[in-house]
Amino acid sequence: MISVATADLSTLRTYLLELFVKLAYQEGDFTLSSGQKSSYYINGKQVTLQAEGALAIGRLLLSMLPSNTQGVAGLTLGADPIVSAVSVVSAYENRPIPALIIRKEAKGHGTQAYIEGPTLSPGARVVVLEDVVTTGKSAMLAVERLRAVGYTVNTILALVDREQGGAAFYDSQGLNFQALFSISEIQTFYKMST
């Protein structure tokens, strides 16, 4: 067993890939949030809500953030544990980065805000984090909400790219996109381990 807190990033990435294959990846008949049918499903929360998975994700995504990042944000619910993990790890690395959670619907009381978390300075550079990208529309909603309040968003980082148009969509929107894993890599590893 590796030490998730101290392992080098290459070892950590392999460990996280194993977790995704073991805990999050399933084959069968599924309907995705986009309405598309799929022969497989990835439930990222099976990994992001594990203590070791969250720590590995926090360390790996923090290493991928542009050096000028002033906040991380994501659309609730899938991104909630991811932005929290990155924020907590950033504090341990003496590079504290606040986390923001973007609601799908405005809060029905109080300030009726779409964005939860600390208020950042106008123009703050925020990176959107996502668990699984299919078409790219979910994370784009987060980008739009963040830009609407004056934050600068140029980058989206995801755990898994399903390779179904999300990357091309982000490129067409002028956004930098990077995923820790492609679905091809997960499926190859899955076949090797079954």
Automatic annotation (TrEMBL):
Residues annotated as signal peptide: none
Residues involved in 5-phospho-alpha-D-ribose 1-diphosphate binding: R103, K104, K107, H109, E130, D131, V132, V133, T134, T135, G136, K137, S138
Pathway: Pyrimidine metabolism; UMP biosynthesis via de novo pathway; UMP from orotate: step 1/2
Enzyme Commission number(s): 2.4.2.10
Reactions that this protein is recorded to catalyse: orotidine 5'-phosphate + diphosphate = orotate + 5-phospho-alpha-D-ribose 1-diphosphate
Keywords for this protein: Glycosyltransferase, Magnesium, Pyrimidine biosynthesis, Transferase
Gene Ontology biological process terms from the UniProt entry: 'de novo' UMP biosynthetic process; pyrimidine nucleobase biosynthetic process
Top EC category: transferase
GO molecular function ontology, one term from the record: magnesium ion binding
Residues the entry annotates as binding orotate: T134, R162
Cofactor(s) needed for function: Mg(2+)
HAMAP family: PyrE
Assembly notes: Homodimer.
Family in the record: Belongs to the purine/pyrimidine phosphoribosyltransferase family. PyrE subfamily.
Protein function: Catalyzes the transfer of a ribosyl phosphate group from 5-phosphoribose 1-diphosphate to orotate, leading to the formation of orotidine monophosphate (OMP).
Protein's UniProt name: Orotate phosphoribosyltransferase
Species lineage: Bacteria, Bacillati, Cyanobacteriota, Cyanophyceae, Oscillatoriophycideae
Gene designation: pyrE
